[in-house]
Amino acid sequence: MPYSNNAQIQSLEISLPLSRGAYQNNGASPWYVNNAVLGTPGTTMKINFDTGSQFSWLTSNQCNTTACKHYSSGSFRTRFPIPIFENKTFEWVDKNPASFDFGHWGNMEMNTAKDIFEIAGKVEDLIINPLNLVTHYKSNQFKESNWDGSFGVPTGFDKQEGFYFHFVEQLINQGLLAPSNAEISFFYDPTNPINSSIFIGTMTDRYLKQIVDIESETILTYSKHPIEGLGYIWTTKLDSMFVGNDEINFDSEHGGEQSYFCLDTGSSQLKGDARAMTDTYHLMMNAINANTELPNLTFKLPDGTKLILEGEDCLSTIEDGSFKNKSIIDIAPLPYLPQLALMGSKMLDHIFTRYIYNVTDNGKGGYSLFSKEMRIYNKLEGPCIIQKV
Q1: Spans of all domains in the chain
Q2: pLDDT of 119 strictly over 90
C-alpha cells in the first residue's frame, strides 16, 4: 500500500545499528546490520545493505552442503524441526531454483519467497519480496563472508526483472517511509563500531552538524554508466585519477572516453577498470619494493574537488580467513567494469555518505525511486578526504 500521511512520520525515520566483522580477503565490506530479524518466529541474521546491488539474498537451510558454509554461519529457516514453531509469515513465491551471476563472486543458485523484516520503532514490519534464498554457492568468496545475506539499495535504473529488490522503494510503497524522505545514509566508525549506523530518512543540518563538517559537503550527481546493465550502480562523473603524481589511464576502448566513480557499501576494496586498477596496483607495489612511502590516491571530480585517500589505506591487514595476518594491496581489476573506479569501505570508513532519490508515481498506485545524487562529508574527527578547490 502506498504511503499515506501519518503524523508520526519524522524526517529521520529509521536507524539501523551497524556492526563490523573481520576484514577478510574477499572484497566484501566488513560492515553489516547485526541481529536483523526475519520471519515469525524470527531468524536472526547479519545483513549488509548494499548500494552496489539490486537484489536481496539470504543463505538458507535448504543448502546443507559445504558450499554454504561461511564465516558468519547464519542461515534463514524455511522450515523448523518442530511443526508448532513453523514460520507463520513465510510464503513461497517460486520454488524452482534459478541461477544468478554475482560477477567475480561467482554464481548463486536460489529460489524465491517472501517474509517480514522487523524494523525497530515501527508497528508494521516490512515485507521482503522477492526474498531470494540461496540453495548453492559457486565461489570461494562466500566462505569468508561476514554477512548471512544482503539487501540491495540500487539506483532504480537498469532493473534486472525477476530478481530486482530495492529496500528504500519497498519501505515507501508499504507505508513505512514518507516519499519526501527517500534517502539512506551510512556512518561508519571503525575506531568505535558501536557508533556506526544506517540512517533512513532526510538528514537535517541540525543533526549533520553534530557529526560532520558541513562546509565539506560535496554533491556527486548521478550519471548513468553507458554500458548496458551497469545503471544500477551509483556512478558519478570522474575527471581524473592519480597515484601520487602519476595520472591513471582507463580503458577508453571498451568504456568510452568518460570515466566514473562510485561509493559502494557492499565492497571493501578499490576495484573496477582493469587497466586502471592494474596500473594502480603496480605503482603501489613499486613503492613497497623500493621501501618508500605508499603514494596517495586522488580522485578529481569535474568541479575540481579532490577525494584523497592515503596510500596506507590501500594496504590491508587481513584479520581472518585466507591470508590471515598478512598485508595485501587491496585493489581488484575487473574487466566487466571499464571506465569505473569503485571504492568501498576503505574510503567510506572516513566519510559520511548520503544516497538521495527522486520519487515518481509508478502509475500502479505506488512509487518508483531513481537516484538523484550522493552527498559526502568529512567527519568532524578524521582525515580530510574531501578537499575543495
Answers
A1: 12-187, 212-387
A2: no
Fold of 212-387: Cathepsin D, subunit A; domain 1 (2.40.70)
Cβ–Cβ < 8 Å for 24, 74: no
CATH of domain 12-187: 2.40.70.10
- Is residue 261 packed enough to be buried (19+ CB in 10 Å), middle (13-18) or exposed (0-12)? buried
C-alpha to C-alpha distance for 314 and 304, rounded to whole angstroms: 23
Residue listed under C-alpha cell 525477476? 162
| pLDDT tens, position by position, 364-379 | 999 999 999 999 999 9
Distance, C-alpha 164 to centroid of its chain: 15
Q: What are phi and psi of 195, to 5 degrees?
A: -85, -5
Same fold, 12-187 and 212-387: yes
Strand 197-201 vs strand 183-187: parallel, antiparallel, or unpaired?
antiparallel
Q: What is the pLDDT of residue 83?
A: 54
Contacts (Cβ under 8 Å, ≥6 apart) of 161: none
Stretch among 72-81, 86-95, 113-122, 278-287 having the lowest mean pLDDT: 72-81
